[in-house]
Amino acid sequence: MPKVRILFDRVRLEEKMLEEKAIELGHDTKMIDAKITNVNTESKKSDFDFGDVVLERCVSYFRGLHFTACLEFLDVPIFNSLQVATNCGNKLLTSLLLKKHNVPTPKTHFSFSSEAAIETLEKQGYPLVIKPIVGSWGRGVILLKDREVADAIIEVRELSDGPLDRIYYLQEAIKRPPRDIRAIAVGDQVIAAMYRTSSGGFKTNIALGGEPVPCEITKELEDICIKASKAVGGGILGIDVMEDEKRGFVVHEVNNTVEFKGLAKVAKRNIPKEMIEFAVSSARR
Question: Is the pLDDT reported for residue 79 higher than 90?
Answer without folding.
Answer: yes
